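Pipeline run #58 for the internal structure catalog. This entry was flagged by the ingest filter as a single-chain record with no existing model, so it goes straight to prediction. Upstream metadata was stripped on purpose; only the residue string is passed forward. Reviewer on rotation: M.T. Logging verbosity set to normal.
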Amino acid sequence: MTIDNRSAFLVAVGDLVEPLTGRTLSQLSAQIELNNNAVTITVGSFNQEFKDQLTGLVERLVAQYGLGDIAITILTRVPDYLVDESRENLSKVKSIIAVASGKGGVGKSATAANLALALAHDGAAVGLLDADIYGPSVPIMLGVEGATPASPDGKVMAPVAAHGIVCNSLGFIIDSDKAAVWRGPMASGALQQLINDTQWPELDYLVIDMPPGTGDIQLTLAQKVPVSAALVITTPQNLALSDARRGVDMFNQVNIPVCGVVENMSFYSCEQCGHINHIFGKEGGDLLAKETGVPLLARLPLEPSIRSDADSGNPSVAADPSKPVSQLYIELARKVGAFVWSRHQAATDNVPIIEIQ
């Protein structure tokens, strides 16, 4: 094994393409280290399928360049977006993903919960913040309704653990039977307090289930929290699309990148005969993506099990990650993670780190 072979091998590894971004490992600033008889590659998103594929590709390159017996290790380190050190309780959070919709009733909260669980499924440390002030539903969906966040010092709250992630919600604080009859400034203040007073642990991603709409609360979140990426949820029907357009525009106005659109309740497949029925219309998500210039990341079905799993406190990805609808959420999570990785590289304009020792 010569130095030239080792150098050529590292260049070839750097030229391997991450399929969800279409960019090479070098372009994504992946760290590639060759140390004696071991190669370690550090990527920027949790995607077990890609890591398995990458291992196979590197094994072929090891054989092609005659490197002999080389141990291959693939690690993940999510880019750290949060630069505002004054937000003490967010200092351990690397990336924040906002899940939003222009209107209610499009399945935003169920999507946010399953997205968080899908990110964790591939190995990420994930938190879920229920910022839907007027309709906090995360405690019910995660099966922790009635839980009380611990407060070590009486000032900050520790998030509640559920299904391998941690979460916090106004639903833990107010009476579940009482309406939050608050004007905009009061609601915005409550939300800021919830964000600032939660002592999040080390997290790769914090998913925020935003309230529907584009008013005071949404602007408070967008402007006060360093969001890495936003995901907009809609249904195919024209009414939802109109509001979703405004949601995309809001994020554009406050310079938060929209990683994509999710068309929820896209179709219903009859359990008996398999007939597909587009109850809320067809291809609305494609139209929204085309008009706004953001990609359509997923079409999620109108699936009875999504509702029943959430109602039982055991969302689909937690209930059975192998079933088809759970796989759709996992694919969505991988696309969102890839966007966060690629967007960080573009923002920082890093160069690839290639080391030979």
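catalog note: The longest helix spans residues 324-348.
catalog note: The longest strand covers residues 93-100.
status: ready for reviewer M.T.
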